[in-house]
């Protein structure tokens, strides 16, 4: 049975609902949760959190994982606080693992929401277009993995941008997944490491120094990884010029 134009229009509209929901929750969260998901809240509740963790480790780990996924999936404020909290509650190894898993799942959720709706429309238009837009899409696909890794490794790229942009240009789902899981590890280790020593910082009456990410001994290796990810892109660009 052929679908009527009204049914097709309704289905097309429904495809945009997930991303619209993400946007709505993000706006509400930015207004209402800015002061809740903070280091002050963590400081005030740290004894209760540590006690609960010691008595219910698995429940705490799963609850934290779920909360972090929601924060990332809906682009809520507090992602940095969550990353540091992972180290504070679970240590460097387990904390990094939980942080990476939660951030990856959350990123996949917003990526799929964008890809199913607006991303599908834009990608189809880019595929059908000619000239510079089509060449841009082809170039992105030729260096898809390298570009995705760069988006994750460069600290200056906001996380939600690195989640949305690939969906809008139609990158492969698998490539987005594994480059996200791999590319966020360096930054996750840094934030989790800060969280490991958070108890001592609170005891001194201080707040965690997130500027550590920009210290030369931390930024140097990350920039080195960025250069490695960018090198294949540069090589392909040079080869393309020679062929012309």
From TrEMBL:
Bilayer topology: Multi-pass membrane protein
One GO cellular component term: plasma membrane
Keywords: Cell membrane, Membrane, Transmembrane, Transmembrane helix
Main localization, broad class: membrane
Residues in VTT domain copies: 77-195
Record carries keyword Glycoprotein: no
Location in the cell: Cell membrane
Entries under InterPro entries matching the protein: TMEM64, VTT_dom
Transmembrane segments: 17-37, 57-76, 88-114, 149-169, 176-198, 218-238
PANTHER family hit by this protein: GOLGI APPARATUS MEMBRANE PROTEIN TVP38-RELATED
Family per record: Belongs to the TVP38/TMEM64 family.
Protein name: TVP38/TMEM64 family membrane protein
Native source organism of the sequence: Tritonibacter scottomollicae
């Amino acid at each position: 049975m052929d679908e009527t134009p009204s049914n097709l229009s309704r289905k097309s509209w429904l495809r945009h609902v997930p991303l619209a929901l993400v946007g709505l929750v993000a706006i509400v969260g930015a207004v209402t949760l800015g002061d809740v998901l903070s280091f002050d809240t963590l400081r005030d509740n740290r004894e209760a959190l540590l006690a609960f963790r010691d008595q219910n480790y698995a429940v705490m780990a799963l609850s934290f994982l779920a909360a972090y996924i929601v924060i990332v999936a809906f682009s809520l404020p507090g992602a940095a606080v969550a990353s540091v909290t992972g180290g504070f509650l679970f240590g460097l190894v387990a904390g990094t693992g939980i942080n990476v898993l939660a951030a990856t799942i959350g990123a996949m959720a917003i990526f799929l929401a964008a890809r199913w709706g607006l991303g599908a429309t834009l990608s189809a238009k880019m595929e059908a277009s000619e000239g510079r837009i089509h060449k841009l899409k082809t170039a992105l696909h030729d260096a898809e993995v390298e570009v995705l890794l760069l988006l994750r490794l460069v600290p200056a790229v906001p996380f939600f941008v690195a989640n949305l942009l690939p969906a809008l240009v139609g990158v492969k789902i698998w490539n987005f997944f594994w480059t996200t899981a791999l590319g966020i590890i360096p930054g996750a280790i840094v934030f989790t490491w800060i969280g490991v020593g958070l108890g001592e910082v609170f005891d001194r009456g201080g707040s965690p120094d997130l500027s550590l990410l920009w210290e030369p001994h931390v930024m140097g290796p990350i920039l080195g990884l960025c250069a490695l990810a960018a090198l294949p892109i540069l090589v392909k660009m040079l080869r393309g010029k020679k062929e012309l």
